[in-house]
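Appendix B, Record 12. Input sequence as logged:
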Amino acid sequence: MTSEDLIPAEEICTLYKVERTFISSLYESGLIEIVTVERKEYVPCDHLRNFEKMMRLHKDLNINIEGLQAIHHLLDQVQKLQKQNVRLKNRLSLYES
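Logged structural output:
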């Protein structure tokens, strides 16, 4: 992972107008990843989309961290089931031809 793939946590706080504790809470809950380089904390770019989703749920719907964990888990399950459904449909189409 290069430094180009990392966004400083402080910059995220400024851009999205969130408390630093919110980012720490997301990290402690396993909802995002934080990378420490030379005593400075960064969020990988590929976790930014998930951060934005959790931030919107937290701000717009006033969902706490425990609720965000539950939502994250359910969304992961839905995504896995959708992928499995596509694989099964593809397998079934082989036999229907």
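The mean pLDDT is 93.
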